[in-house]
Amino acid sequence: MLSRRKLLLSLIAQRQEAIAVSVLHLLLALVAEREEKPSYFFIPTAAGPYSIDVQHDLHSFEKGGELVIEDGSVRLQRDRVNPLSYALDGSTLALLLDSLSDFGSKGERALMDLAIGQKPFYGIYTTRSDSAIEHVREAIASAKRGVYTLGYEGLSIDQFIICLIANDIRTTVDVREYAFSRRAEFSKANLVEALAQANITYIGMPEVGIPTKARKEILEHKSKEELLAYYEDEIVATTGASAARLAELASVANTALICHEEDPQTCHRSHFAAFALQREPSIAAIYDIRTKDGCTYPW
After folding, report:
1. Is the pLDDT of residue 218 over 70?
2. 3-state DSSP call for residue 259?
3. Which of 118, 239, 257, 261 is the most buried (most CB within 10 A)?
4. Which residues contact 221 (CB under 8 A, 6 or more apart)?
5. Measured between alpha carbons, how far is 141 from 93 in angstroms, rounded to an integer?
6. Could you tell me where the beta strands, DSSP code E, fall in the chain?
7. Average pLDDT, integer, range 200-209
8. From CA 30, how far away is CA 74, in angstroms rounded?
């Protein structure tokens, strides 16, 4: 996180005048295409590429007094920031300066053309239509129909949403008993807001979660496997109404059960999913999205 925030501040510092936040997103999206390991990931919106993490970092800096955001633009409070705090290593600085030399003087429309030209995925929710964008739209629309499962472990909030969009998932069902996370972006209120950026519906289903008391008592002396065995023996059979609701949601649009663990086999969501599939044959299939190497797609 520190390195990405340095990049963000350094880019803003290169501009003597305020920079439109929308332009900032576009520039960072273009920089990300040149990075071996992107500092930020971007979701498609009606206005092109957008990063929830960028917005989160901007507001954190604004709260700390390093940045001023007003009228849709952002500028550095130079008297409040030590330049060493956003100094980049040589290769990263060179990449940023080269990118700004190539793109920095272009207007928003030209930047949008470049960003979508390089990654047509960014254009799927815009009014634009060309063969590359249509190819991505068709690929997403052809995703397998059914219920998916996805854990956010190891993903940024933007990567998480990219995974959902790529599988044409329109509804998420949070199966945590308490929708709270040490990573604030995955706590309920923030997650609902983030998903709304991609027109994805959030539904909480805490009744299918593992009771906190049981989790603490079992994990204190026993293994995760024994905790899941308890869930299978004591909880799953009580979730018939929730399984029916899941089937109803899945009949309308692809739906994902979401939780923390990357590996579905170490998460109770796999047990609930299997029960729901057996109880509600209309679900037809369960697909686990594995994200160990991140969410990357050919477009």
Report:
1. yes
2. strand
3. 257
4. none
5. 39
6. 19-20, 43-45, 48-50, 67-70, 73-76, 147-151, 169-174, 201-204, 254-259, 286-288
7. 98
8. 19
Residue 96: is it exposed, middle or buried by C-beta count within 10 angstroms (0-12/13-18/19+)?
Answer: buried
Q: What is the dihedral of CA 109, 114, 117, 122, to 10 degrees?
A: -70
Task: Name the CATH architecture for the domain at 144-288.
Answer: 3-Layer(aba) Sandwich (3.40)
Does 16 score more than 90 pLDDT? no
pLDDT the model gives residue 221: 84
- In the chain, list all ranges with CATH 3.40.1010: 144-288
Contacts of 182 (CB under 8 A, 6+ apart): none
CA-wise closest residue to 39 among 47, 48, 51, 21: 51
pTM of the model: 0.95
**In one letter, which amino acid is 91?**
S
Q: Which of 1-15, 129-143, 247-261, 284-298 is predicted least confidently? A: 284-298
Whether the Cβ atoms of residue 155 and residue 38 lie closer than 8 Å to each other: no
Tell me if 2 sits within 8 A of 15, measured CB to CB.
Answer: no
| 36-73 pLDDT tens trace | 999 999 999 999 999 999 999 999 999 999 999 999 99
